[in-house]
Each structure stands twice: as structure tokens, then as C-alpha cells.
Amino acid sequence: MNLLLLIGTPLLTAIAVLLSRNKQQVKWISLAGSVVQLGLAFVLLFAFRQERAENNMAQMLFEQNYKLFSTPNINFHFGVDGISVAMILLTSFVLIAGVLVSWNIEKMTKEFYFLLILLALGAYGFFISLDLFILFFFLEISVIPKYLLIGIWGSGKKEYSANKLALMLMGGSALILVGILGLYFTAGKSFDIMTLSKTSIPGDAQHIIFPLLFTGFGVFTALFPLHTWVPDGHSSAPTAGSMFLAGISMKLGGYGCLRVATYLLPEGAKQYADLIIILSAIAILYGAFATMMQKDLKYINAYSSVSHVGFSLLGIGMLTQTAITGALMQMVSHGLMTALFFAVIGMIYDRTHTRMVNEMGGLMKVMPFITTVFFIVGLCSLGLPGLSGFVAEMTVFMGSWQQDDTFHRIATIAAAMSIVVTAVYILRAIGNTAMGPIKNESYLQLKDANWNEKLAAILLVAGILAIGIAPGWLNDLLRPAAEEIMNKIAGK
Amino acid sequence: MNQSLTIALIPLLPLAGFVILGLFGRKYFKKSAGIIGTALLLTSTILALYTAYEYFFVYGKVDGIYQQFVPFQMTWLEFSKGVSIDIGLLIDPISVMMLVVVSFVSLMVHIYSLGYMKGEERFSTYYSFLGLFTFSMLGLVLASNIFQMYIFWELVGVSSFLLIGYYYDKPSAVAACKKAFIVTRFADLGFLIGILILSYSSGTLDFNTLIATLTNPESSHLKTAAASTFLGASALTWGAALVFIGGAGKSAMFPLHIWLPDAMEGPTPVSALIHAATMVVAGVYLVARLFPVFSITTPGVLEIVGWVGAISAIIAAIIACTQTDIKRVLAYSTMSQIGYMMFALGVSTYGGEGGSGYTASLFHLFTHAMFKALLFLGAGAVIHYVHSNDMKDMGGLRKFLPITHITFLIACLAIAGVPPFAGFFSKEEILLAAYHNNMGIYWIALITSGLTAFYMFRLYFTIFWNKPPEAHGIKHGEGGFAMMLPLVLLAVGAAAAGFIPFGEFVSSDGKVLASNFHLEFSIAPVALGLAGIFTAMWLYKKQNSRPDKLAASFNGFYKAAYHKFYIDEIYLFITKKVLFNLIGRPAAWFDRNVVDGLVNLTGTTTQALSEGIKKIQSGKVQQYAIYFLAGVIILATLFIYVIR
Asked: I want to staple B17 with a disulfide (CB 3.0 to 4.6 A). Which of A230, B131, B523, B635 is the partner?
């Protein structure tokens, strides 16, 4: 399969959106584009499995390499392994759901959809790039739309949040850029991930470059204590913006931490692994405790994201194959789950015009569909078997436990303790909104979900169930890729 | 029919019920949901009985020993080589026995609910949740892999949560379902870490391999695990103890029992199914499943199991004597009886005569399921009739509810241990096992059995006698055939189940265990039981002032027991005051003010700096000249005096 299709389709969709004449056209073109994109993601999945089944064990499949500049040595080098395929699937699900839930945006519809598609384009490009420069380019493409999405369509103190988010992410990007340039100059003038992975980079250089790259990507994925853009950014962003931000953008960071920082700089990773574990264990527990005190649904999900994404970083820091597989599963699972969570919050907010937990109550009576989805996503968040969160977290725990010294054990137990705290805040949120007596008489008039909202929710729930009930396929995708990374770390 | 398919269908049929009714029930099966659910479960029950027959009488026994079979197993999630979560079916005496118990009681509850829940707005949702619960419980029972058990363990937890919160617009029900979930979740954390330890120590998650590895003193895994210690106890001791915490949470053992009485907020048939007969005994089943590990490798933990069981048994019995909500009395009674099962395991050893506690425990699980489900369903009929849970609103009901009265009496006699009802046989075996192994526990158990008889008959006499019979102004009778049939069927079980030679089917090592029954030994417990019954009769058969006087004479103790020994308050203090105020609130504050404050500080500093720099570039030539001059002077000074 030609990978260029994956960036070509969003590009064409974006152009078509710009050229379209009215809101209806904009919406349907965007939907059509994202449906095609989802189709392509599935074609990619099956083509990938087909190749693997035919025993094509090359690390990267469907590679394409075009020279862009010889000095500096920059190439359009694309290729995918299991991790990229999983991330592309995730992006496609979130994209289509985001398009669907934004169906009733009235303000500057064309620009809104253009930016959404552009953001997705950045993500797709990022996940298939094997050249660090191009990868960085796509990363930046996905940052700017976020600023505008929050600044224009946001709510609350949106200017502040937009600035904060853009500045922090740009700060992260600056670190990444320095790191990438550092790699380029220490490792024989190459930006190519595959080439770099075979080059031996001096330990001293690794110890300097690794923290730059890891922190840089870490900002994107809410590495404690650089996570504070998350609560503000999410609370101000429009629904689809939050979905993309948490569902996709945070995964760009996690992917970068693993593919660029950890994979290319194994010595640095080993050096800093303990610090990563400490920070992520703190993020997991501290995020969970902070969530417990939130009253705004968006803040609840934002802080819980900090906690959940901590599992991804914890898995990476544990440096075992199973833990890294779990970290990747958590990225996919959290992406779907958090997108769905924000979608549900958006649906509730559109109707009740409040996001304050204590102002709601008894919504189950008037919106059975929305509250059922709310239950499902809440249960996924607290790690109920049969839904994706359980699979990912258990894999991280099993992988972490393989490190058998006291430090790793304590970190694992601390992380595991969060499953109780998660249950507390999720049940509080559900109990106060969906259950209990109806507090506001006017809520009795509210309508349940529309067709577009239903479709979006069903798609994401299907994704969550597909991982939760039969995790084998995702495991097959991610485990060999994680093994490749572990081999490199172990120096094989 | 294919054997593994037959067995697989037992849990899958209720699952189908859950999916069908959950997705389409509201629209298409609003009325027929009950019939669909019941029909599916009837099929399941028949298949379970068939499986039990086949296993116990046809193929299960090889050379006089009941074997373990795994007719089906598939890898669900592979972590690393040899370590994977498998979904499989494990067939051995206890799982087959549990299949019968779970499907039968569930069927009774399904039938009963046809009458009890008729006209409910969310009738189809109710049946779909019942299906989910039954599926999960059957999956738990059949688990061949410890992680599979954990999966279904969590699923029964969530179905219990959904069913307790069935009346979702009632604040007390919402609070109760949250409490039940969170308390058991806390215990499950122990279970999870226990699994991690045990699987790491044995290199597998598969029950058979795990047990074989951890009980074989020659295995290298066991030697390594026994050598690694933490805080003075070996890894395995920690693992087993943590797994037991999981079991204790689900089985409402002291001090993790606080969720069970509140769980009575759910519909009464649900209490009968989940919080009396099936889910709450999952902890007992878990210990029984891992029994070889507990008794051979970590006997210290098994002793803890015994004492936790005994303490739970007596504390719950004392509290039960003082409660006035009939469902809460039954809830504490459940906790007390599960305490019996736990300590029976605790005093048992693996194999032979010493394993009689194991057999007795599971025997009691079996008979308890019958009479306790019957008690709850009977209580449901009473509540249905008087529209109240409180004993004070009842009295003299024997005239109006004749079938309920008789069946309830049978259940009371059974639980009080009066021969020849079912509870007598299983309780005698438990007491005997305790007598031979641990005298301390034996005495606790003996006192508890007297208390049991007392509080059960206190309940019986206050409901059915006490006040003169008066019509409650209610025209409807006992409830229809759907509600009476399960009562009668369960009453037959409660009366006759004791005659099953249980030791021939279930024993710790699969060999036949002859029941050793001593008439002289039974004198003390039966006499105590009868004493309890007569005391209750003297106090409660007719309205009088004796109960109040008695309560007054105990004064402080009575008050403490009435308030459940203030355990709830202690928990409330820990969660509300400590967890929220000392951890949650500071964490949230710290994040908004310190961490984010630093970020904002960086922002404002940068801004202030740039403001300052901006002023320098004012565009005024005179200013630039001054800067220039100042620069020259500073540099000149530097070069002349500092650097030279």
C-alpha cells in the first residue's frame, strides 16, 4: 500500500473544504474525507497483517524514500511498523468521531473543519515519517491548528489557555529541535531514523540529547510536571478540539518519546529510566488524586488523562518488552477512551449548558443513550475487563513486575493503587451526573443524542470493545515492534 | 453434544441474554424480557445439571479420584513466553458444584422476578443486568487461569454495582452501589498484586501449572520465591495473603464487610442472588481453588484465613441480633455464615481426613445458597406485602402469607442447624473440623451457632407472630405463582440438601471422604441452637417489654452493636477526612498553585523581560547615543582595570 495516500487524502480534503461553498458541503466533504481515511487505515492494517503473515519480517513495511535535500541530508522517508499502524487506526477513529460531533458548529464552519483536517494531516504525517526532520515538520503542523481551535472556538478563558498551550508545546518543540540537531551532528549527519538506529552514538552525547528529546516530547504527552497545559487547554477547547488534543496530540508525544528518544538513544534511556519511572508514578497517583477534587467534567477528564497517560510513560521507563507493549496499548486505548469521554462531555454540555458535576443529576432518565455511553467510558477508564483500559493497564503491570528490584516493585504498586482512586472519581462523576434525582426541572425537556453523535459514540465504543474483548490483534501488532525496540536497548 | 460446547453454553446463554436485552430490550422486548431471560437461564441450568451428572457419575472419576479437565482453552492475551491470560473452562468437583448452585439460584431469581419486578419501567434492563451477572459468575467459576478469574471477578463486581444501583434515582442506592464497588475495588487491588507476585514466582498464570509449581518443594521457582523476602515474610506469603484480601473483600469479611449491608438497597431478588448465594461466596471459592497453595506452601496465611472467618462470623452474628431492617439482618447473617465457610477452610489441611474442613466449607456453601436465597426471597415476599423493610411494621403475617411462612420457617430451621434440615449437616461438619484443629475457633463457632438460631428466630417471630394478625388493608395476596414456585423449590433444597453425601463428591484431593458423623458431638451445638430458638420465642412470640429491658441491660454493648461497632464511621473518617482533605485537596491545590504557578511565573517573567528590552529600543537617537556612551565607558573600564 502506498503510504502517501495517508497524507494525500487529508490534504485533498482540506483543499476541498477550502474551496467548498456552503456549510453543508464543508461538513459532508470532511465526513467523506475522514471515512476514506478510516477505510485506508483498515486497508493498511490488513495489508500489514498480510505482509507479516507472508513472513515479511522487515522492521518497516511499505517504505518510500525520496531525496529532498542532500545538504542537510533530508529525505521524504516513510514507512510503518506495528506501532505506526495502530496509531494511524487510532487517529482515523478520532478524526471521524471529531468530524461527527462538530456537526452543529455554526461559527466559521469552513475554517473549523479545515483546521481539524490539518491537525489530522500533521498526525498522519508524523506517524509514518522515518526522517526526523520531516517528522518534526509534521509535529509542528499539528500544533498551530490547536492554538486557533482553542482561541477562536473555545470557551472560558480561552486566550489564556490557547497561549499557554501553544507556548508550552512550542517550548517542547524547541527542545526536540535542539535534540534532533544534536543527533544529526553527533551521528554522521543523518536525520534518518533507520540509519540512526544502526549508528552507535557516544554515551556522553546520549546522556545530553536524551533528556532534551524526552522532555520535549514529554511536554506533548503531559509528563509531570510539564502537564499544566492539559487541564486549561482541554477546559477551554471546543469538543472536537479536546478530542484531538487528548486523543491524538498527546499520543504524538508518547510515540516520540519511544520511537525517537528511547529507541535511538538506549544508553540515555537506561540512564534516565528511574527518573522517568518516578515522574510517571507521581503523575499517575497525583493526577488521580487531583481528579478526585475536580467539579468540572472537563477538568475531571483532563486530570484523569494526566494519570492515564502516566501509564504509557511508566511502561516506557520500565524498559521491558511487555511493559512497552502495554505502554503502546495504553496510548491507543487512552486515545479512544478520552476522545469518547470528551465527546460525551460535549454532548452533555450542549444540552445542560453546564459542566459542573454538582449541578446535574438523574440524566439517565432523559438521555439514556448518552449516559450509557458515559457509563461505558467511565468503566473503561477505571479498567473494567472487556474494555480497552484493562488490557493496557494489566499489560503495563505485568511488564513492570518483571523488573524484580524493590524500586520497580514500589513504583508498580504505587501505580496500581491508582485503580482504586480512579474508581472513586469515576463513580463520583457518574453518580452525580447520570444517577440520583433530577436536580433541575428544565432537564426533563432535554433530548437524547442525535444521529451524528450516536454514530461518533458507537464508532469509538466499537474501538474500545474491539481491544477490550479480543486484544490479540493489537498485541500482535505492537509486541514485535516493542521487541525490536527492546533488542536495540538490550544491545542485541 | 460436544462436551466443551455444552459447558461453554452454560455461561454464554446468559451473556446472549445480556447483549440482546441490553441492546434491543427497551424497544422490542419491554414486556417479554423476563420470559426471554428466564428461558435462556432455564436452558443453562439444564445444561449445568447435565454436566454435573456426566461429571460426577460418568467420566469424572478415574481410579476413584475425581480428575480435573480443561476441555477448552484459548490464549486471550500473551504477555511473554508462557505467561498469558487464557480463557478456558476448568472442570473439577468444585467448579461443577458451583455451576449447579449459580445457575439454579439464578434461575430461581429469574422466575421470582417475573412476579416481583412486574411493571418496573426498566424491566428489560433489569433482566439484561441479571444476564450479565450470571454470565460473569459462571465465567468466574469455570476460570482455568488466575487472570481469567480476575477478569470475571471484576465483571461480577460491576454487575453487582449496576444492580445495587438499579433504583438509580434514589440517593441511598447510588451511595450504596458506589460504596460496594469502591470497597471491593480496594480489596481487588490486593488480589491483583497477589496475582502479580504468584505469577512471577511460578512463571505462569495457568491455575494447574501455578498450583503444581508452587506446591512442589523441588521446583526451582518455589525455592527462589521462598528465598526472596520482604518485611520478614516470603514473597509467596505476601502473594497468598494479598490474594486472600481480594477474596475477603468480595466475601464481605471483617473489616472489608461494610459494603454488604448497604448493598441491600438493590432489588430484593438481586440481594438473594448476588449478596447471599453466589457472588459473596466467590472469596471462599477463590481460597478453595488455590487451596493446595494455601495449605502446603503458606500455612501461615491459611491460619489468618481461619481467624478472619471466625471473627467475621461472631461479629456479624452479634450485630444481626440488634438490627431491625429485615434485609440487613439477613445481610449480617450472610456475612456470619460466610465466616463459617472461611474458617472451615482455615482449619483444614490438604488431603485425607484433615481435609474434612475443606469439604465441610463447600458443603456449607452449597446448603447456605439454598436456605439463604430462600430467606431473601421470602423476605422479598414479605416486603412486597407490607411495603416496608422494617420489622416494626410487620407482625402476625402467618395468616396472610401461608406459603411464605412455611418456607421461611424451613429456612430458619436450616440455618439454625436443627436436624434434619440442610444447615445442620454442613454446620456439624464445620464444627467437627474446627474441634479437631483449632479449639479457639471451635468455641467462637459454637457461640455463633447459638446466636444464629436466636437472631433468625427473632426475625421469624417478629414477622410472622408477635402482633395479633391484622389485615394491612392490602388486597393482593402473596404474589403469584412466579413468586411462590421458587420459594417451594428452594425450601425442598433447604430441607433435603443435607442428605447429600457431599464428601463423596467434593474433597480437597479428589478422593472420596467418608462423612464422619458423631451423634454425641452434635449435642452441644443443637442444644445451643434450641436454646437460641426458645429465647427468641420467649422474647418475641408475643408483644411484651422483655426485649427492651434486655437491650437496656446490655446498654453500652447493645448500642455499639446496633451501630455496627462504628466501623462505618471509622471508614468515613478515613476517606472523607484523610483521603479527601489530606491528600486529594492538597494535590489539586498544589497543581493549580505551585506547579502551574511556576509555569505562569516563567510566562510573566519572560513577558516582563521582553517589556524591559522593548523599552530599550525606543527609536530615539539621543537615547541610543547615551547607551552607546555608557557601553563605551563600561567596556573601557573593564579593559583598563579588570582585564588589563
From this structure: B131
- Which backbone phi and psi does A78 adopt, to 5 degrees? -120, 150
Interatomic CA distance for residues A187 and A204, integer angstroms: 12
The amino acid at residue B180 is: A
* B258: enclosing H helix or E strand: none
| 3-state secondary structure (DSSP) of residue B118 | coil
Of residues B307, B273, B14, the one with CA closest to residue B142: B14
Give percent above pLDDT 70 in chain A.
100
- Whether ipTM > 0.95 holds is no
Contact assignment for B200 to A404 by CB distance below 8 Å: yes
**Length of chain B counted residue by residue:** 644
Per-residue buried b or exposed e for B474-492, using 16+ beta carbons within 10 Å of the residue's own CB: eeeebbeebbbbbbebbbe
**What pLDDT band is residue A23 in, cutting at 50, 70 and 90?**
confident
CB pairs under 8 A between A and B: 130
Q: Is A435 helix (H, G, I), strand (E, B) or coil?
A: coil
pLDDT attached to residue B516 = 66
List the grid coordinates of B513.
Answer: 471422604
C-alpha cell at position A343: 465527546
Q: Chain A closest CA to B399's CA: distance in Å? A: 38
CA nearest to A325, candidates B151, B80, B204: B80
User: Is it the case that residue B476 has pLDDT exceeding 70?
Assistant: no
Tell me if A37 sits within 8 A of A6, measured CB to CB. Answer: yes
pTM of the model: 0.91
pLDDT tens digits for range B122-152: 888 899 999 999 999 999 999 999 999 999 9
Q: Which helix (H) or strand (E) holds B332?
A: helix B326-346
Q: Cβ separation of A167 and B603 shorter than 8 Å?
A: yes
Chain A CA closest to residue B197: A401
Domain assignments of chain A as residue spans, ordered by start = 4-490
Are residues A399 and B147, on separate chains, in Cβ contact within 8 Å? no
What pLDDT, in 10s, does the model give residues A355-369? Answer: 888 888 888 888 889
pLDDT exceeds 80 at position A287:
yes
Q: Which residues of A touch B152 (CB under 8 A)?
A: 385
CA-CA distance, A87 to A48, in Å (whole number)?
A: 13
* Mean pLDDT for the stretch of residues A435-442: 82
Strand ranges inside B531-577, DSSP E: none
What DSSP state is assigned to residue B89?
A: E
Q: Which three cell numbers stand for residue B577?
A: 477526612
What is the Cα–Cα distance from A59 to B86, expressed in whole angstroms?
A: 29
Whether residue A262 lies within 8 A of chain B, CB to CB, comes out as no
Measured distance CA(B490)–CA(B497) in Å, rounded: 10
pLDDT average, residue stretch B527-544: 83
Give the pLDDT of residue A253: 92
Instruction: Among B168, B238, B607, pick the best mutation site for testing chain A contact (most A Cβ within 10 A).
Output: B168
Q: Please tell me what DSSP assigns to residue A445.
A: G
- What are the tens digits of pLDDT across the range B172-199? 888 888 889 988 999 999 999 999 998 8
Is A450 in a helix, a strand, or coil? coil
Q: CB-hemisphere CA count at 13 Å for B639?
A: 6
Distance CA A234, CA A150 (A): 9
φ/ψ of residue B252, rounded to 5: 55, 45
Residue B529: half-sphere exposure toward Cβ, Cα within 13 Å: 21
Closest CA relative to residue A368, chosen from B206, B25, B19, B141: B25
Task: State the alpha helices, DSSP H only, in A257-387.
Answer: 263-264, 266-292, 297-318, 321-352, 363-366, 368-381
Is A116 an 8 Å CB contact of chain B?
Answer: no
Q: In chain A, which residues have their Cβ closer than 8 Å to the Cβ of B189?
A: 416-417, 419-420
User: Which residues in chain A (277-296) have CB-CB distances under 8 A to chain B?
Assistant: 286, 289-290, 292-294
* Averaged pLDDT for residues A328-350: 92
